[in-house]
Structures
1.
Amino acid sequence: MGVSISLAGKNAIVTGGAGGMGRCTARMLAEAGANVLVSDMDGDAAAKAAAEIAKDFGVRAIANTCNVASKAEVDAMVAQAVEAFGQVDILNHVAGVFGAVDFLEATEEDYDKQLNINTKGTFFVNQAVLKVMIPHRAGKIVNMCSQAGKYGFPTNVAYTTSKFGVTGMTQSIAMYAAPYNINVNCVCPGIVRTSIWERALDDIRRQGGDAEAYFESRLQGIPLKRAQTMEDIAHMFLYLSSSFADNMTGQAINITGGRVLH
């Protein structure tokens, strides 16, 4: 007798859901039966992803355009989900940015971009969703963190700072939400060569660096000797969004091929 995850009848929000890990995650939730609001800064891409999800899996899928650094846009996103679905059972907060900038060359703009999207965005997305989950005394919140939320990287200090914030924030929100039977966890990927990584490698090239050598050097410290895939990450989002994870909260789960062991 097989065991499978079912999210039939559940309603989910996936931020950053139009591409890369967000799109992969949104599709997995839908395949498991959840209705999905696909939110992304790129509204056209969100609409395309939502249309494909509805067609492929027969669930309700709607699109939303949102910059998670804007509290007003975040509140509007959650209001749209409540209007469409009636309630929100699952949040997969995948939206984020990555940047590798030399510490001594980093500007105020570089710093603000990382903190505004990765940390402030997580704060207000979680806050807005928690407000609608608490009355139902149930819910699953899964935030995107990073292995950079576990130990320091000299090549991207601002990004690492933002992700350490996500780890601590997830723990704190988990404690706040626990009396309401709401689980809050985060996923810490290692190296997944998504469009975010490609943009970061382009930054290295523009600065005169060898992007491919940098990428390969990052793989050498992984015991399993491979980068992680989008499916590797989405599977953990799916698990933490399900009843299988009912007794897990405040956790930062590593998907790093053994690179991070704490």
Note: Residues 173 and 184 are 7 Å apart (CA to CA).
2.
Amino acid sequence: MPTANLTREKIELNDGLDSIVVVQAISQIPGGRTLDVSGLAANVESVKSGHVLVIDTKTKAVSPLGITEGVYDTLPTGKKYYGVLKASVLKRDPRAAIITAGQINVAASPAPVTDAIKAGLPLIQWLYE
């Protein structure tokens, strides 16, 4: 299971889109989750707000859905859609607030949202495509 260091150094992580990607958060995972970021490329330093998250149906580990060449990957076997990352997180400190119902500004999201993602997260309204 992923872990996080609870002592935090002060770092500003802001690309200017966090404040506009989440239009409205109606429901969230209480207490959030620590993301499994082991599948991210070595050169990736953060996961951006609005990123689609998936959960492993066996281990219950939550991870960012992969993005290849600017497009979300298809849902891997053994995983299901879980929610959307509320605010950007550093790879080295992946404690995440996760939205399960609300409105997301797709124009500010990390990648275009597919029909499969929309079907998998029916309580999310995808705006401004």
Note: The mean pLDDT is 92.
